[in-house]
Specification:
Elements: H1 5-11, E1 76-78, E2 82-83, E3 87-92, H2 98-111, E4 125-130, H3 135-145, E5 153-155, E6 159-162, E7 169-172, H4 179-187, E8 192-198, H5 213-230, E9 233-239, H6 258-262, E10 265-271, E11 280-288, E12 296-302, E13 307-314, H7 318-325, H8 332-345, E14 351-352, H9 353-364, H10 368-378, E15 381-383, E16 392-394, H11 406-410
Parallel strand pairs: 3-9, 3-10, 4-5, 4-8, 8-9
Antiparallel strand pairs: 1-2, 6-7, 10-11, 11-12, 12-13, 14-16, 15-16
Length: 468
């Protein structure tokens, strides 16, 4: 029997909303230490400005004993990337492809089409709040290009209400303060799996300072509770600053830290710094505190209307990319030696990409970014003979292995030992370890297979001291 009948009685009628996927049967039975029969006498030394508790309590604590909470697994829209019932931030600089990526995600959800890594994608409707793109000439063509079922995409355009005199209907823009309107929309879409707010800054309202943590949290926290209640994923598209010395990608999000703080997962869209044409882009994970670290993906934006074409998996985080961009590139010797090693490793035929990457790091101490540059400079081709299945690398002109021969093709003669012409090299390629810039983009040479002419540095002239 409970030892706190007074609290039991107060909380028995607790009707607070609970997520559809969680039940807390014991939140009204709280056998805590009994309250003293009479309240303690007032402290005469207490500051006079302190508020006094009312004699009859009009506020009570809402407590849940953790032994009464049944643990459940996190539900995912995209495994380890976009959780259901939570807020995810999709961040990037203007023009890097955030909205096009959001359109690709929308299309897959409406059709239940598997994600590029082969994982399952739940099928459902999508509620779209878009403030920067027109529905007719931008959003609809993008969704068509991404092969979306547009009958399952609903755009929330605003709020309609009667004017003060009650005679006319007036439309106004919607903000996150209109949470009841968003909830009414979700009630009209019982199969909704995803809500997209693009960009989040346009829906804060004119009275909200996006740089004040408490004001941003006051709007995002109820949105997160709404996501949990209806078990839908919410993607908030955020801009990042164009420059800065930060080494943590999440810190580059414009505005308050609350944007990444409230989100349970953060994804970053950025141009690949190793692609001089700026066509290849990266979708890389940032923060995710409810799941394991997930790999990133390369993609390009093709066609008109533009749509996403997925590339290959990359074992890189957004922080890795930001930190690499802040370092000087590897010396030409390291790039040449990485290219020679990779050419020898693939000389016998196609190999699993993961095996080549692991061997390059473990056997030759080649950093992942340096290996990727060597891959691109050699024109190494990437493909997946069976989908879903592992990715393979091959030199130009080589034949892809048959699925049945995949195991045999991977048994490469050089696997497990150094190529003979590189056995004399030290363990650290080019004498540079990862912490000294081997992962950073190279700004010195245009070809890793040819020497580079170094231009001597011309020191700056000293300024003359101003006359006193």
């Amino acid at each position: 029997m409970s030892t706190t009948p007074h609290i039991d009685a107060l909380l028995a009628d607790d009707a607070r909303p609970r997520p559809a996927h969680a039940e807390y049967p014991g939140d009204h039975t709280l056998p805590l230490r009994p309250r003293s029969a009479s309240p303690p006498p007032p402290n005469p030394d207490a500051p006079s400005g302190l508020a006094r508790a009312p004699s009859a309590p009009d506020r009570v604590p809402r407590l849940i004993r953790l032994s009464d909470v049944a643990p459940v697994d996190v539900s995912w829209l995209w495994q380890d990337k976009i959780p259901l019932g939570r807020i995810t931030v999709l961040a990037g600089k203007p023009g890097d492809g955030k909205s096009i990526t959001a359109a690709e995600i929308t299309a897959r959800v409406t059709c239940g089409r598997d994600w590029p890594d082969g994982s399952y994608c739940p099928s459902g409707s999508v509620l779209l709040l878009s403030a920067e793109d027109a529905l007719d000439d931008t959003i609809r063509p993008r969704l068509d290009a991404a092969r979306a079922d547009v009958s399952r995409v609903v755009a929330l355009q605003g709020v309609r209400h009667l004017s003060d005199d009650g005679g006319n209907k007036v439309d106004r823009v919607i903000t996150l303060a209109d949470l009841d309107i968003i909830e009414e929309s979700l009630k009209e879409m019982p199969d909704c799996k995803l809500v997209i707010v693009d960009p989040i800054g346009s829906y804060l309202g004119g009275g909200t300072d996006s740089h004040r943590d408490n004001e941003v949290r006051a709007l995002l926290a109820p949105l997160g509770q709404l996501a949990s209640k209806y078990n839908v994923a919410v993607i908030c598209v955020c801009h990042t600053r164009k420059g800065g010395a930060t080494t943590h990608a999440d810190d580059a999000i414009l505005g308050s830290v609350a944007f990444s703080g409230i989100a349970r997962s953060v994804l970053h869209v950025m141009n690949d710094p190793d692609d001089p044409e700026k066509r290849r882009k990266l979708l890389l994970p940032g923060k995710c505190n409810i799941g394991p670290r997930s790999p990133g993906w390369t993609f390009t934006v093709e066609g008109g209307p533009p749509h996403v074409v997925w590339g290959e998996r990359v074992d890189q985080t957004a922080d890795d990319a930001v930190q690499a961009a802040a370092k000087p590139g590897p010396p030409p010797a390291a790039k040449r030696e990485a290219a020679e090693w990779l050419k020898a490793a693939l000389q016998g035929g196609p190999r699993l990409a993961k095996d080549v990457q692991d061997e390059a790091k473990a056997k030759a101490d080649i950093a992942p970014a340096t290996l990727r540059r060597a891959q691109k400079d050699l024109g190494v081709e990437v493909d997946r003979p069976k989908n879903p299945g592992p990715w393979w690398w091959r030199l130009p002109g080589q034949k892809w292995p048959q699925v049945a021969d995949a195991q045999e093709a991977n048994a490469h003669p050089s696997q497990g030992r150094e190529p003979e012409h590189l056995e004399h090299l030290p363990e650290t390629v080019g004498g540079v370890d990862d912490s000294q810039g081997a992962d950073a983009p190279d700004a010195q040479d245009s070809s890793p297979l040819s020497p580079v002419e170094h231009v001597p540095h011309k020191p700056k002239r000293k300024r003359k001291a101003a006359a006193k």
